[in-house]
Amino acid sequence: MKQDERIYAPVTWKEPVVLVVTIAITEFIYAMPQLVHFHFPGSVFREVMMDFLFMALACIPGWWLHFRVFRFLNWQTRVLLHVLTAAVYYGVWLLGYVFYNRSVGIPVMTGSQVLQNLWHNILFYVQAFSFLHLFHYFRQREEQNRREKELRKIAYETEIAHLKAQIQPHFLFNTLNSISGSVPAQQEFTRELIARLADVFRYALMASQEDKVTLRQEMEFIRTYLSLEQHRFGERLRVVVHLEEGLEEVMVPSMLFQPLVENALKHGIEPSVEGGVIVLSLTRQSHRLMVRVSNTGLVQMKDLRQMFKTRGVGLRNIEARLRKLYNEDLEVTRVDDCLHFTFYIPINVKMPSRAYPVSASPAVSFNVISPAFNNNGI
Asked: Distance (Å, rounded) from C-alpha 355 to C-alpha 143?
């Protein structure tokens, strides 16, 4: 597991439970001398409970922002965010006491009382969220160890399966070359198709041995694969690729895009008499690569998640790989007759351990995107 590919434990409701328990323990530790001094009177105990309630409510925005919305921030940005959420925390705490004091007839706090309570609450905030970050850190380490163990097991099983399936791959390439050599020179297009088919098999063999490839290599493979499919579908298949500049050397898991493209062909283009459009969009979003595969075609099922149960193992395998590698989900959305598959990959630019020779011939002719996709933000 590379160091810059951070593994995050799934966010659960354990964090707010730990936060509330931490607040309760800290509050009663602070209040214990006062409770003992006054022999646990009901008024002081009620005041402690109200203070605990307001502190717990005031911590909710900070927990939501730090552990739900912005859980991927680096520590410098997180410190700045804590400055903001600490101010929000104290504001919510003061607002709670304003309403409480007015409801029970207690005078509203003066300016000096507000300042006096400020440092007490800031110290309380630092203690509570420090403990919560510590808890989250250990959960993250535990999750990373668990995932690394699963990945080692998967790698071992994949290697065994590869050794079983690797029955003289050079025999396949030599056979394809022999077939290509037996084709008359007048049928150059057929020779080119055979060469592209050999490229597909060669890349699939390489992908079984390499965990990561560059985005450039993966896209060249997709172009070659689609060129073969375009020969089958003809004008019924229109392909549009949006690749943001500067992303060509980003490392991605090998053979991750092809099942999505195959799914779009099988369930979007093939059933339609008029065919359709496949759009592959790859853009940078902060420190992540956003990959979206979209296609036209009617989707009969109401629950899109049923695809993962009824449409073979391809989608399930992609989702399983994304979760184990990056703790990311494969998002499925539908807008009118357009189906969108979206996922995110941490951007990591490194050269692969070995280069894969890609075909220099053009693979797919790009067509102008249809208005239906333009209207849906593709």
From this structure: 33
Q: Tell me which of 150, 177, 200 is where a domain ends.
A: 150
What DSSP line would sit under 34-93, residue for residue? Answer: HHHHTTS-HHHHHHHHHHHHHHHHHHHHHHHIIIIISTT--HHHHHHHHHHHHHHHHHHH
Residue 50 falls inside a structural domain: yes
Cβ pair 176, 190 in contact under 8 A: no
Q: What is the mean pLDDT of residues 269-295?
A: 90
Asked whether the beta carbons of 249 and 240 are under 8 A apart, the reply is no
Chain mean position to CA 173 = 37
Q: What angle do CA 249, 200, 359 make, to 5 degrees?
A: 55
Whether residue 204 lies inside any domain: the answer is no
Strand partners for 29? none
Same domain, 117 and 219: no
Number of domains making up the chain:
2
Q: Which domain holds residue 87?
A: 14-150
Which segments within 215-330 are labelled E, that is strand?
237-243, 251-253, 276-285, 288-296
Report yes or no on 186 lying in a domain: no
Q: What is the pLDDT of residues 291-326, one digit of tens each?
A: 999 988 655 555 555 565 555 567 888 888 888 888
Nearest to 106, CA basis, from 187, 162, 18, 43:
43
In this prediction the pTM is: 0.53
Same domain? For 215 and 359 the reply is yes
- Does some domain include residue 268? yes
